[in-house]
Amino acid sequence: MTAQHYRCGWVALMGPPNAGKSTLLNALLGQKITIVTPKPQTTRNQIVGIHTDEAAQTIFMDTPGLSQVRGRLSKAMLQAVWQSLNQADVIMPVLDSHLYIRHPEYLERDLAPVAEALASEERPMIVVVNKVDLFADKSRMLPLLTRLSEMWPTAEIFPVSALMKDGLPALMELVRSRLPEGEAQFPEDQISTAPVRFMAAEIIREKLFLQLRQEVPYCIAVEVEHWEEDEARGQTVIHAVIYVARPMHKGMVIGKGGKVLKQVGMEARKDIQELLGGKVHLELWVKVRENWTEDPAFVQELTRIEEVR
């Protein structure tokens, strides 16, 4: 393909919590770059994933779920969403079809404000209707698809299953066709703009989400304090701090006899080793930082990823 026909652009994934945006991004890239848990509001930052082939470079921005929860952390997460929209060449709302077919009354509550905000939008928009694998009878989706077409009359409605990778090749082809012509902005082997320290901290946070059943994960932050390449031992040494908002949470994160923290460390180390392609020595500490979610400077530092555009 000639250089003048090469395409390159930014795609903003947005939508309600737990719609599968991160699962979709990982599946489209063919590699895990953003954490995934069954809990809503897992993603706190704008995560950039880059897909490059001979026809186009597609730069995806995974964003926190749009919700009505309050607090400084929530405001920072919403700011990341709208920042992504300002950057985007293509807007891609991602929706949980299973939720809205079971509870059609939630559709207006969750999506009407977003649809109204984007009503005059002239950029290409692709509404991804996710989790279609949960329906044996696909005809049950027709009322939902009809209503989405009414809410977004100029958008293309595209059902997929990110988990089963059903429909993703066709979706990727559609996205590429909507990108503007232009040269690639990143090296062809680069898959994300996030620093590896940030990705390692996110892996640790993912394992905490999966281990803890209470609301504690939403009051947890992870910060890598020390990163060293130990060439003599052929390993990367990582020291990370897990911050909790209340003293009572510290014991829950550590677990009886240190069981929870040990399990988190084992699972996180395995994934970080896969990320880095080498041995990792990981040490974790738990510290109390009371009400950190309402500390603007701390929240800003946690949610900040260097501007890339």
Automatic annotation (TrEMBL):
Mention one GO biological process in which this protein takes part, according to its record.
ribosomal small subunit assembly
G2: annotated span: 41-45
Segments carrying the region annotation (G3) are 62-65
Era-type G domain ranges (all copies): 7-181
Q: Where in the cell is it found?
A: Cytoplasm; Cell membrane
- Give the region (G1) as residue ranges: 15-22
**Keywords from the named record:** Cell membrane, Cytoplasm, GTP-binding, Membrane, Nucleotide-binding, Ribosome biogenesis, RNA-binding, rRNA-binding
Q: Which GO terms describe its cellular component?
A: cytosol; plasma membrane
Membrane topology (UniProt):
Peripheral membrane protein
UniProt-annotated stretches for the region G4: 130-133
Tell me the ranges covered by the KH type-2 domain, including all copies. Answer: 212-290
Molecular-function annotations in GO: GTP binding; GTPase activity; ribosomal small subunit binding; small ribosomal subunit rRNA binding
- Ligand binding (GTP): 15-22, 62-66, 130-133
Residues of the region (G5) are: 160-162
Q: Write down the CDD domains for this protein, in alphabetical order.
A: Era (cd04163), KH-II_Era (cd22534)
- Does the record's keyword annotation contain Nucleotide-binding? yes
Question: From which domain of life does this come?
Answer: Bacteria
By sequence similarity, the record places it as follows: Belongs to the TRAFAC class TrmE-Era-EngA-EngB-Septin-like GTPase superfamily. Era GTPase family.
**Assembly notes:** Monomer.
The entry's function note states: An essential GTPase that binds both GDP and GTP, with rapid nucleotide exchange. Plays a role in 16S rRNA processing and 30S ribosomal subunit biogenesis and possibly also in cell cycle regulation and energy metabolism.
Which protein is depicted? GTPase Era
Q: Which organism is it from?
A: Candidatus Desulfovibrio intestinavium
Q: Which gene encodes it?
A: era
